[in-house]
Fold this sequence. Notes:
Elements: H1 11-39, E1 51-54, E2 68-71, E3 82-88, H2 99-115, E4 120-125, H3 129-139, E5 145-148, H4 154-157, E6 170-176, E7 182-189, H5 210-215
Parallel strand pairs: 3-4, 4-5
Antiparallel strand pairs: 1-2, 3-6, 6-7
Amino acid sequence: MTLFVLPGENEEYRRQRAELLEAEIALKNQVEHVAALRRQLPRGARMPEYTFREGPANLSRNDPADFRDVRLADLFTNAQETLIVDHLMFHPDDDAPCVMCAMWADGYNAVAPHIMQRTSFVLVAKTEIGTLRAWARSRGWDRIRLLSCHGSTFNRDMEMESAGGDQRPGLSVFTKGPDGAVYHSYSVGAELGSNTLPGTDGRGIDLYSPLWNLLDLLPQGRGQDWYPDHGYMQRPVTSGVG
């Protein structure tokens, strides 16, 4: 190891840091390997012509007369052939979405303009479109295309909804064929399967939020019981100067 060798470090720190570096390189290589396997997946199932509800880009326009139906095939913009869908946990009977999912969407809203240089990107929730847009306006989600799948089987078919109607978080990727048909490419949820390490259930989509990666850098780690709070976005930010 030659990087980040600071004055005053003892030999034991340097030895363990060198071991950690080897593990970090192995992790990076494994991430690249998994990405390659994902890209090698054959084309998935042909998707039905799902219909969603959508409103204007201006989130202050929340008159039902402004809402319209759009098909899954309409979500591919700028002649792009791929689409990422963020499945937001927001049950029609709830006043607010899942706090974790909202935190993810906060991050997606910030990077959406960059993402959409390469692929189409939308957020889909089961709640009514007016409720979703009102929440999004309070949160400042003005860069994400927002859609409601209320009244459709989209989330259920994508296994992002339980038989009892409970919503699940995740991401899905779709492609559009030359014939205009839409095909499933890949989906991932918070739960990956039964072979995860103890205490790591629910971390299947952690890679797609920088928060967890940053907290994992800390000596104390991310903690087992910490949850984000919807109120964070309404609290004043202090600069620490004074």
